[in-house]
Amino acid sequence: MNSAQLEIQLIAALVAIACAIPGTFLVLRKMAMISDAISHSILPGIVIGFFITHNLNSPLLIFLAAFTGVLTVFLVEYIQKTGLVKKDTAIGLVFPALFSIGVIMIAKHANDVHLDVDAVLLGEIAFAPLDRLHISGVDVGPKALWVIGSILITTLILLFLFFKELKISTFDAGLTASLGFSPVILHYGLMTVSSITTVGAFDAVGAILVVALMIAPAAAAYLITLDLKKMLVLAIIIGIGSAISGYWLAHALDASISGSITTILGLVFLLVYLFAPKKGVIAVYFREKQQRIEVSLLTFLLHLNNHNEIEERHVNHLNEHINWQKIRAKTVLNLALQNNMITIDKDIVSLTKKGVKFTTQAIDYIITNEDSKIEHMKADFFLFRG
Amino acid sequence: MDKKIAVKVDDLTVAYNYKPVLWDIDLKIPEGVLMAIVGPNGAGKSTLIKSILGILTPIAGSIRIYDKPYTKQRKLVAYVPQKGSVDWDFPTTALDVVLMGTYGSLGWIKRPRQKEKKAALEALEKVGMLAFKNRQISQLSGGQQQRIFLARALVQNASIYFMDEPFQGVDATTEIAIINILKELRKAGKTVVVVHHDLQTVPEYFDWVTFLNVKKIATGPVKEIFNDNNLTKTYGINYKVSIQE
Questions:
Q1: B92 contacts in A (CB within 8 Å)?
Q2: Domain boundaries along the sequence of chain A
Q3: Which CATH number is A3-218's, of 3.30.390.10, 1.10.3470.10, 1.10.1740.10, 3.30.2130.10?
Q4: Is B53 close to A177, i.e. CB distance below 8 A?
Q5: A299, A335 in Cβ contact below 8 A?
Q6: pTM more than 0.90
Q7: Does domain A282-381 have CATH number 1.10.10.10?
Q8: Looking at this predicted complex, what is its ipTM?
Q9: CA-CA to A298 of 20 to 30 Å: which in A275, A382, B22, B92?
Q10: Per-residue pLDDT reduced to its tens digit, B124-179
Q11: B interface mutation test: which of A30, A168, A179 has the most B CBs within 10 A?
């Protein structure tokens, strides 16, 4: 691995961290689409900044672009507040308008400036190591590394200082206001950070794919953990992992780095979506299946508890009486037998003592919903293992 | 009446999109009462509370908490929003939500420490939720979530409590537990203002009541003004409640 490769991966990883932090809050605030809007509408800011500075890494350009990002959010909310259109419509109105202004500006001046739509939209991180920063003649590394590094450090400081405020305003804006923390300031603070990060990241992954780095890691982390701090850490880890493995995927395929990173992000989310321990699709499927069987078992035991008549308890007639398919009736019968809750004598099913006790307590629990009632049953029985 | 006035609202008008939802409200809430705000849907009950707390900006009128503007008296006031106003899937625990009640006295940047944590645990115990302190909030029942909200207000150790429908969607046990805590607060000399829906329980739970329907209909002691006349004026239909003393 040569030093250029190392630098590219380092930049990609820093971009991933810088995106994951505001991304986590955007996801929790249900504002994922705002990042998409910001990523498009910073284009005119970038173009104007470039016309003024002729330097894609100039701080002025970054601030101008970030300003258009915040302006987007403001316009979206302003239009939404009129009550004439819904929020998603407002987003759909604002960012294409700003974006198209940027596109026209680039087209008009494409001949005399070195800036093309592709570079802004898709980024080209492979060239990032070529653009060096020199301080009094000494090469201190790629400019992009310094840009995203400064943005990341600022973001981390802000996160550390205002974590409590960000958390409460994301969870409960009403309480936040009544306690004297302005939700508006926090909201626009977050929007400013998101915008600046988007601008800083466009060199690496482009303004469009930055959305994936903001949203996908946070969305995946949300499915894995129930703790905000862990969610932030996980989002960062997923972001870094995807950035680096995306780089090597691009290397292997000789393809676009930003495209590969985004593909990996999509795959990681898909895997988490399927296999997350509690919220994943597969876990949910098996839990529901388990619950279905357990509820069936309880229904069956209750039926036995309520009926002494022989014909109601005959193995071959169960499916008629509780209207079950043969297979389901058999599964439930086996389950009850395995757990010593029933005995079968000449095809007549009877509850054991354990079965009676279980049924009564389970019903009691379902009615009262008091956890203490089943505390001692949890180990013995399987029904309430959730 | 020589009771101290905890909250004084003068000529309050609030509008959403230029349509007034509260019109020229004058209201005095004496210190130490347990007051219900009643009125039909859209009467502006929540709006009144939110305006007092500075969450909404009124187009006219003034609000005084112990004769000072709210912004100077924040630490005297605790607020329980409607349970449905937040996302209970938010990744955090019951204890953490209660700790949020301490953020006001901490101010910007400072983090809660042992002292705040201790207070939060005590508040959890008071509402009978200590065993659930590390439970993720989405895994709590509706009644338990409401208790968490109440604990979050208790931890603020305020003088005035505003609660927006604390009994909504809770079972009878929780309702009794909550009202007992509110009565304890009153006993301790606190002022408690509750947006309330169940008219039947007003005489049993509260000693003070405000009838609201865009305009203020009446305010005063339950014994004196909780009658069919005011109910009819507020709800617009011929209202009859049998009041059991």
A1: 167, 171, 226-228
A2: 3-218, 282-381
A3: 1.10.3470.10
A4: yes
A5: no
A6: no
A7: yes
A8: 0.90
A9: A275
A10: 999 999 999 999 999 898 899 999 999 999 999 999 999 999 998 888 888 999 99
A11: A179
